[in-house]
Sequence to fold (355 residues):
Amino acid sequence: MKNTDRLFALSGVDAILVMSEKNRFYFTEFASTFGYLALFPNNKSVFITDPRYYEMAQSLSSENVEVKQIENGLSAYGVITELFKENSVKTVGYEDTEIVVTDFNDLKDNLADFELVGVGKNINFVRSFKTAQELEYIKKAQAITDEAFSSILGYIKVGVSERDIAIELEYQMAKRGSSGLAFDTIVASGINSSKPHAHPSNKVIEAGDAVTMDFGARFNGYCSDMTRTVFVGEPNEELRKIYNIVTLAQNMGINNAYAGMTGKELDAFCREIIKANGYGEYFTHSTGHSLGIDIHETPYASMRSSDTLNVGQIITCEPGIYVTGLGGVRIEDMLLFEEDGVIDLTMSDKNIIIL
Ligand SMILES: [Mn+2]
Fold:
């Protein structure tokens, strides 16, 4: 069970009701499709679920989580209300960032005796500081991703389709222990590579194509994310130039990243290089995002981001240049902020690869 002291210090409520699957998983590391997690100050918590999970959830008791069962036919809110009253709760934090309107209306009706306070942003903020164990999972997910990339290079050749490459990448990640995809794999070749988030199609690789692959694995519920662009046969002069500018921009971001900077500053380090080389208008997305259980988490690195990038947080650095009719290049690594700079969690080579 995750320590919740920081969350309560930020939120100033008597209890927090966690309803979303991902946040239940975050706090407990117990995967369930149904349940409520009631958090109280001083790391006291109660997991409320139905008979489908009750027996499995007993493993949580070793983590000092009390497990309560909703009896057949009764409502979860009955159990929750009783629990809050026993604990003299007046204010209840809820996930305003996750809950849909109908569930919110239900929540208001059923917990009318308590004052409801949105704490979703606080949960997201706390989640952005990775624990040693979470970092281990993310590093393992990235190691799987790096190995899958090395293994795919011999497979990419003229005549193989984008879909085939995506399937092979996914197979190689699964074989190495990925429990699922961090997100839908992107493989974009030739003129398709000018679309940053193109879906893999039946287009086959042709000589001279840029092939951009953006993909990630999952390990124990945690994501990795990397992008590489490789060339099949000699790229034309402009694509080669673009590759060098994107590499330079990404290096500028990585080498100048420090804890305490803003997401806007990190974005600017990459963006200015691309602008100075005449491709400013072709870098059409932001520089990076954090990740964890979700593939996109706070903090963000963009032109508008006022997020501070702190020790213990992760951010991707993924500049790109996309020219319609020609193709595109993106290179993405995951960075971990430490006291004296960043650690690049992505091991794959960034020197131009011509297959
Ligand atoms: Mn990404």
